[in-house]
Design a protein that fits this description.
This protein has one domain. 77% of the residues lie in helices and 0% in strands. The longest helix has 29 residues. The radius of gyration is 20 Å and the shape is globular.
Length: 303
Amino acid sequence: MAASATAASPPLLLPSLAIAGTVLSWAASFPAIGYALRQIEPLPLAATRFVLASLLAIAWLTWNRPKSMPAKDYGIVAVCGVLGIAVYNVLLNSGQTTVSAGAASFIVNTQPLFMAGLAVVFLKEAFTRWSWIGTMLALGGVAIIAAGQRGGLSFGTGTSLILGASFCAAVFSVLQRQLFARSGPLHVTACVLIVGAIAMLPWLQEGAVQLGAASANTIAAVVFLAVVPAAIGQTCWTYALKSFGAARAGQFLYLIPPTAVLLAWAGLGEVPQWTTLTGGTLALAGVIVVNTWGRKPAPATAR
């Protein structure tokens, strides 16, 4: 029995490492953005980061030479790149100029709520009582987080910009699903990264100037953002999805906000406020409720 258990355990090692790589790399992106924003403005930072990431994507496409997508899919890729890469990162970077890295990670993690709302509107899925309870919990948590940030939750403040980024990520995720059915996830990701970088080219020159005047640590943060969360993190996530499936793998993403809080505390000296911890706990609880009990079909009524 022991021998068979030992023989069965190694295949789980790589998927487990892939999950760990996803959580750590994506959580680290929040404090890395916060650090880079000390010397580089939000739009130039997004441009330089994703132009660097797109070079890796071009290198992968040149080396791998995947089969071309159906013509109609390139239009979806264009929307995904503009919305899920360019607009998302502009909103996130702009929001993080006034919102701490830990708080931002909790707010962005409300993405599944927007995805559930899109499913109700466009796919006519039912929104159960538990879904409403989870949504109210999550929104209450975001409101508590906002209370501890500059500007609160009024329109145009950091918190509202990051909520906008979360909505963009939700639309991006919904649109991507149909692409994965016809093309490999890495192929789709590479094309989306390239489109996102092209959309941010107007800010590249300014980004290059600011990067050239930045400290070595800031340059390292930008390179880290381009290579680790964008390239390595996405690759780890693709492998985890293939190994565990979307439902099971998605549960591990709830580890990202608390990990980001710890990394921001250690790396940036951002001591988490009680509003971030309390609101973040509520927000996570709400998202978990929506994605567990909220997705269970209502019991049939007795006839």
